[in-house]
Amino acid sequence: MGRLFLVNLDGKVYSCKHCQTHLALCEEIVSKSFHCRHGKAYLFNNVVNVTMGLKEDRMMMTGMHTVSDIFCVGCGSIVGWKYEAAHEKSQKYKEGKFILERYMVAGPDGSQYLANLDSHVGGSDADDA
User: Fold this and answer.
1) Where are the domains of the chain?
2) What's the rounded Cα separation, in Å, for the pair 5 and 74?
3) Which of 9, 44, 83, 109 fits as disulfide partner to 22, beta carbons 3.0 to 4.6 Å?
4) How far is CA 1 from CA 4, 105, 127, in A?
5) Mind telling me which Pfam families this protein's record contains (predicted)?
């Protein structure tokens, strides 16, 4: 395995809750109105220090999407997913963007979001916006 180079971000940063690896800047947030199986999730234009899993089609609350899970390069934890393709015309704005599950990341102030145990168990991406 090669040497690992991490991108360190300047500013208000969301990071992996397990290893504090930087993942995204606050100004990259597109929407805070998404939900996943553990509760809240945020849509970002760009994230760093992640690797992507295999592409797969998933039926979500807003329709069928082709997504890739994203994993923290520091510790390997799954932190969200990337929208590769949206099959519904109204959802095309998500393509190429990333979801970070709030439960899996620490906020810019170091805060952590607790999982919502009453949340829907299946994959979701409900956008309230």
Assistant:
1) 30-106
2) 10
3) 9
4) 9, 26, 39
5) Yippee-Mis18
Reading across the β-sheet that carries 39-44, which strands appear in turn? 29-36, 39-44, 98-101, 78-86, 63-72, 50-60
What are the distances in angstroms from CA 62 to CA 5, 37, 44, 127?
36, 14, 17, 8
Q: What is the pTM of this model?
A: 0.84
Q: List C-alpha distances in Å: 6 to 21, 22, 72.
A: 8, 8, 10
What does the pLDDT profile of the chain (129 residues) look like in tens digits? 566 789 999 999 999 999 999 999 999 999 999 988 778 999 999 999 999 999 999 999 899 999 999 999 999 999 999 999 999 999 999 999 999 999 999 999 877 766 554 444 344 555 443
Burial class, 122, CB count within 10 angstroms (exposed 0-12 / middle 13-18 / buried 19+): exposed
CA pair distance 114, 106, nearest whole angstrom: 10
